[in-house]
Specification:
This protein is an all-alpha fold. The chain has five helices and no strands. One of its GO terms (molecular function) is transmembrane transporter activity.
Length: about 160
């Protein structure tokens, strides 16, 4: 098993478990609010953290398979060399912007550490959570870099026929 396959498996598990945990926390919060008139005080912060973790851990698979949301209305017009050029151009833009996002995540993590920010209800230092999310963003960037676009055609279905 390669390191990239291991990272994909780990990110997949993290994404799945965080979604389940978010659902359980939300259920417990609503149940406590309705039945006992006492919601969980930390639910909002914890669900927000888990949502970010789930998002960034899920990006590994999305980037690797190049399954981003895309508009394909003009796809039939961009075949052949033009389609290949546009596909590579979009890929390079994605790598640049996602690389910038990773750098900004690191800067935000360091700023949070320097200022000593702490979550209000959880009491956890924010930079520790941000560092974990930064690590997931780096892993997602690696998967994006390894997912080169197809050279043959802009549309995968067209290239198979």
């Amino acid at each position: 098993m390669s390191l990239l396959k291991l990272l994909e498996a780990i990110c997949s598990k993290i994404s799945s478990y965080t979604l389940l945990l978010m659902a359980a926390i939300t259920f417990a919060d609503v149940f406590g609010r309705v039945v006992f008139n006492s919601p969980l005080g930390f639910a909002y912060e914890l669900v927000a953290i888990l949502l970010a973790v789930s998002f960034y851990s899920g990006l590994y698979h999305v980037n690797k398979k190049r399954k981003h949301i895309q508009i394909d209305l003009l796809e039939k017009y961009f075949r052949g060399p033009l389609g290949t050029f546009l596909n590579w151009f979009c890929y390079i833009i994605e790598v640049i912007f996602f690389g910038a996002l990773v750098v900004m995540m690191y800067e935000q993590t360091m700023l949070s550490k320097d200022f000593g920010e702490v979550f209000m209800f959880l009491g956890i230092e924010k930079w520790k959570v941000l560092m974990f999310i930064f690590g997931l963003a780096v892993i997602a960037l690696i998967s994006l870099i390894e997912a080169f676009p197809e050279v043959v055609s802009f549309n995968k279905k067209e290239s198979l026929s």
